[in-house]
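Shipment paperwork, digital attachment
Item: protein structure file
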Amino acid sequence: MPFESEMVLASLTRVRAAEIAAKKIYKGELSGHDIILMHTGIGKVNAAHSATCLIEHFPVKQVINIGVGGAYPASRLGIGDIAVATKEIYGDEGIAGSNGWKGMDEIGIPLVKAGRKKYFNKFRLDKSLKGATAGLVARHSSLVAKSGAFITVSATSGTLGRAGELERRFRAICENMEGAAIAHVCAIYDLPLFEMRGISNIAGVRDKRKWNLGLAADNCQRAVLEMIQRTPC
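Attachment content:
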């Protein structure tokens, strides 16, 4: 959403606006890097559509997905902390039966087949920026960062019980509604994906008085801007 990237947009130089499929994009420069910025909107379909539009229309070398997310309780991440994804997992796709939930591997049909690789529910993300970013955030700012698995869901956890169930099933640290869909598209196009989210709430806690979307979005943008500025061209 726009509030999740307004700081990044303000940092770009030589900005030009355009539209693809009725979605506005911004082309600019940041520390010698050519940047294309797009707001995906909420949910898997919007995210996948936006990523596909960018990849099909521009010579994209790497995708960076930023925004806010909910931390799972055992992650010990707090409001405003940074979560960096090591993998993205579809938390809903599969079978919900009398013996519990089973993933796409139970069906036997991969969501993506790219060369010899078969992707069912899990997509590993690019490692080249993950470790460097977690260390960078810890060394050069007051932010707290942790890396781990992210879960992408269609329905966010509305209770601590549901959040705990997903957390234990996938050993994940963060919940969101778009990341796995973008990872899915990047796997199809064989493009590296990096994902970072600011923690706005604890997954399962629906009391919005305990949330802080603004702090989460600002901290995430501060971290990604520093990462880009310190990445060689």
